[in-house]
Specification:
Blueprint lengths: L6 H4 L6 H4 L3 H10 L6 H11 L4 E4 L6 H11 L10 E4 L3 H14 L8 E4 L5 H10 L3 E4 L1 H10 L9 E4 L2 H6 L3 H9 L6 E6 L4 H10 L4 E4 L10 E7 L5 H11 L4 E5 L3 H13 L4 E4 L5 H12 L5 E4 L12 E6 L6 H8 L9 E7 L5 H10 L4 E2 L5 H22 L3 H14 L3 H13 L14 H8 L6 H5 L19 E2 L13 E7 L9 H12 L7 E5 L4 E6 L4 H8 L2 E2 L2 E2 L3 E2 L5 E2 L48
Parallel strand pairs: 1-6, 1-7, 2-4, 2-5, 3-4, 5-6, 8-13, 8-14, 9-11, 9-12, 10-11, 12-13
Antiparallel strand pairs: 15-17, 16-18, 16-21, 16-22, 17-18, 19-20
Bound molecules: adenosine monophosphate.
Length: 636
């Protein structure tokens, strides 16, 4: 690969969290979660926030932006002040929960620290109780935060920090007026950090109005050509990443492979899991001595090892010709690390393969990477159980062929003949018994993997945190008080729970309909009308937001004109919907209808989703093949 960057600028900062000024209890927590070095956005942002400056950060999910604001804020928190001193506004309840969990994780060694997520859909009484108990940090969705402020149940009089997370998403979802209203109510001297993946004019203007001489932080886009590297991505969905990895290991023909993960802990865990599944794998990370790391790298060079699981730091400058594959198990923070990572293969004029595991919420990074590497990244389906099993059978037969060709077998031939005579059985029966003996308890063929929900998958793929489940899970997280609707005239948020992953990979488009709070409409009426008129499943009618005189709703992009025309004429709460498109169709559906009964429809289904079918994997064949059959890889 010809690379425009030099080794020294290829990877993230070499500064440590300690160098950046993060306080001791947080350093301890970072050690627990296994973060090795600050990501680029962290290295840039942390000093500014610690110095009390406002920050405008252009960064998307996956860059480590949450820790970029949470760590310096926690380093400066006053634990004695019980009323909220930090408010983080996030566009969705999922993000609010995630951010609150991150705060909890980093503050695990701060005594008596409290973070409280508040979002629409959760019942007020639980939130009220928690607010009364006091929270240092409140993480909330704009609508619900505003409701509490109006009711006088949340006071921001002593607020010191305000974070606007994913500001462009809040704008896209129509929350920007609420955000501005909240901003207006905060003390003048509060410090603000605003993060946004893109910088639309409205956000820029808001920044100029509310931020005080902000420091701009962006993620550098490194470009490099990678013509000799075939790049593919797998959209993490439906199966655990570990199961997906073992399938790929079985189906791909590779020589040496390097698998990138984010944390030191993950290098060890994954190496252990792969070893247990029969692969010769080892971990390298920044905690290991130089000697140990070199030994592992030498083993990879001379074929004693096939797979190294590494962090970015440990793999810096790694140069092993045998590496045919780079697999990004955890997404890199930015294009720079990606380019560096994939540059570990395709060395010395060879070709290479790069595979990226990417979660739907991290997809924005994909187009950046395509731009950076000036190459399209193909989507890959997971090799199906059938493909894997065919491979296993072929390998099993090949082993027999190889043994027949290479070994002196006359002694065993005599023994089998003798056995046939003595027991009056055929050679076929004896061979079958021997095959079973060789195979042992592990079945030769793989069972289909179990499906996992997104929440389950997220939980498994997130770094371990002590007491996360116990401490940071918001109270009443699953309780949804359906009577808990905002008053007429107030903005109402409908946050249906995430639906299972199988069908979430759909382009969505935002539409405006001319019926709102003033007409007494409820989200269920809208879902019901649209589902009945169009046959669109309730699961694909998402993010309904009811304003005073109109509402917005997300529907699958590319609806046929005739269908839209029909919908235009539909009346809900006495009003013509007069539906019109607002957005160009970019987001992904991640929600399902709050209540299936609201959305029953027997009509035509639009569109049809077929995510589960693995797409044909056109993996390259190589001369040398050391990929081996794993032990049964179906346990997550
Ligand atoms: P975010 O962009 O904040 O959503 O973070 C993405 C993921 O990166 C999360 O799973 C974090 O736990 C992880 N992460 C953030 N900072 C670091 C770091 N310095 N080292 C390793 N992992 C990190």
């Amino acid at each position: 690969m010809s690379n425009d960057t030099t080794e020294s600028t290829e990877t993230s900062s070499l500064l440590s969290f300690r160098d950046l000024g993060i306080i001791e209890p947080l350093l301890k927590a970072l050690k627990d979660v296994g973060y090795e070095t600050p990501s680029p956005i962290q290295a840039e942002t942390i000093p500014y926030i610690l110095a009390g400056k406002d920050v405008l950060g252009q960064a998307q999910t996956g860059t480590g932006k949450t820790a970029a604001f949470a760590l310096p804020i926690l380093s400066r928190i006053d634990l004695k002040q019980k009323d909220p001193q930090v408010l983080v506004l996030a566009p969705t309840r999922e993000l609010a929960i995630q951010v609150a969990e991150a705060f909890q994780r980093y503050a695990s060694h701060l005594k008596d620290f409290h973070v409280l997520p508040i979002y629409g859909g959760q019942d007020y009484s639980t939130q009220l109780r928690s607010l009364k108990r006091g929270a240092h940090v409140v993480v909330g969705t704009p609508g619900r935060v505003m409701d509490h402020m109006r009711k006088g149940t949340l006071s921001l009089a002593n607020l010191k920090f305000l974070v606007l997370d994913e500001a462009d998403e809040m704008l896209r979802m129509g929350f920007i007026d609420d955000v501005e209203w909240i901003l207006e109510q905060t003390p003048d001297n509060r410090q603000i950090a605003l993060f946004s993946a893109t910088m639309p004019t409205v956000i820029r203007r808001m920044t100029e109005k509310y931020l005080n001489k902000p420091e701009h932080v962006t993620i550098k886009v490194t470009t490099a050509s990678a013509e000799n590297i075939r790049q593919r991505y797998w959209l993490v969905s439906g199966v655990h990443k570990l199961d997906a990895l073992t399938r790929i290991l079985e189906a791909e023909t590779f020589d040496g492979m390097i698998i990138f993960v984010r944390t030191k802990t993950a290098t060890i865990e994954l190496a252990e899991k792969l070893e247990a599944r029969g692969y010769s794998a080892a971990a390298i990370n920044g905690d290991m001595s130089q000697n140990l790391r070199e030994r592992a790298i030498n083993h990879l060079k001379n074929g004693k090892l096939d797979i190294l699981i590494a962090t970015d730091v440990a793999a810096r400058g790694l140069d092993v010709d045998r590496i045919t594959h780079v697999l990004n198990y955890d997404i890199p923070y930015d294009t720079e690390s990606y380019v560096h990572r994939i540059g570990r293969t395709g060395r010395a004029g060879r070709t290479g393969d790069a595979i990226l595991f990417i979660a739907p919420r991290e997809r924005k990074l994909l187009s950046n990477i395509e731009r950076a590497t000036k190459q399209k990244i193909e989507e890959m389906g997971l090799p199906s159980t059938e493909i894997i099993n065919n491979k296993r059978i072929a390998r099993f037969k090949q082993n027999i062929t190889d043994t027949l060709a290479a070994e002196e077998l006359s002694f065993f031939s005599q023994l089998i003949e003798q056995y046939e005579r003595e027991h009056n059985v055929t050679a076929l029966e004896v061979a079958s018994a021997l095959a079973k003996l060789v195979q042992g308890d592990d079945p030769l063929l793989m069972a289909p993997p179990k499906k996992v929900s997104e929440r389950e998958r997220d939980r498994d793929d997130r770094p371990p945190s002590r007491g996360r489940e116990r401490d940071s899970r918001p109270e009443g997280r699953n309780s949804r008080d359906r009577n808990d609707r905002p008053n007429r005239g107030e903005t109402s948020e409908r946050r249906p729970p995430r639906r299972d992953f199988g069908a979430s990979n759909i382009e969505m488009e935002t539409f405006r309909i001319e019926v709102g709070n003033a007409h007494g409409v409820k989200a269920g009426n809208i879902v019901g009308a649209i589902a009945n008129e169009t046959g669109i499943e309730g699961a694909h009618i998402a993010r309904i937001r009811i304003e005073d005189n109109y509402s917005t709703v997300e529907l699958p992009a590319g609806m046929p004109k005739e269908l839209l025309n029909e919908l235009r004429k539909v009346r809900v709460a006495g009003q013509l919907l007069n539906i019109s498109s607002v957005s160009g169709g970019s987001s992904k559906a991640e929600y399902k209808s709050e209540s299936k009964s609201e959305t029953k429809s027997e009509g035509k289904k639009f569109p049809k989703f077929d995510d589960d079918k693995p797409k044909g994997d056109k993996s390259k064949k190589r001369l040398s093949s050391t990929s081996r059959r794993a032990k049964e890889p179906t346990d997550g």
